[in-house]
Amino acid sequence: MKTNENSKSCLCGNGEYVVITCSGACDLGQISDLVARKLRDNKIRKMNCLAAVAADVKPTIEMFKEANLLLIDGCAVDCGKKILDKAGIENYKYLRITDLGYVKGQTPVTDEVITTVYDKVTIDYYR
């Protein structure tokens, strides 16, 4: 595994507008992750790491409390939401992909699906 020897900290993005995602192993987790990366790549939001909250990384938790935070969960298990709620992060925007009509385990990970979810996010959760 190649590492960045010059980096002493996480390379996650931070700033006023942040997106995090469940990035779960199912199709909807993969879609949520790819949508977040597309938001990052198009400079709509900075992408950061939900796992840092689960690992109780205090600077990340405090930054998320101040940011305009968008969480994308794939399904109704709400892993991301539960992590944020447990950490006391309350003021965030939330999208669950199953609420858009997609079904866990039955949704192909295609450019069309990713674009449809991305378009929904950029319209409803842009800022």
In short:
With 127 residues, the chain is an alpha/beta fold.
Structural account:
With about 130 residues, the chain is α/β, with parallel strands linked by helices. It has one domain (about 15-125): 3-Layer(aba) Sandwich (Rossmann fold). About 40% of the residues lie in helices and about 15% in strands. The chain contains five helices and four strands; from the N terminus they run E-H-E-H-H-E-H-E-H. The chain has helices at about 25-40, 50-55, 60-65, 80-85, 110-125; strands at about 15-20, 45, 70-75, 90-95. It has a four-stranded parallel β-sheet, sandwiched between helices. Helix 4 (about 80-85) links the parallel strand 3 and strand 4 (about 90-95). Helix 1 crosses helix 5. The protein is globular, with a radius of gyration of 14 Å. The model is unreliable at about 1-10 (pLDDT under 50).
Q: Share of helix among residues?
A: 40-55%
Low-pLDDT segments = 1-11
Helix-strand sequence: EHEHHEHEH
User: With helices defined by DSSP (H or I, 4 residues minimum), what is the helix count?
Assistant: 5
In the CATH hierarchy, what is the class? Alpha Beta
Query: Helix/strand-derived class?
Result: alpha/beta
Described by strand count, sense and barrel closure, the largest sheet is:
4 strands, parallel
Going by CATH, the architecture would be: 3-Layer(aba) Sandwich
- Amino-to-carboxy terminus distance: 36 Å
The radius of gyration is 14 Å
Q: How many individual domains?
A: 1
CATH topology: the name is Rossmann fold
What value does the average pLDDT take?
A: 89
Residues in β-strands, percent: 5-15%
- Tell me, briefly, the overall form: globular
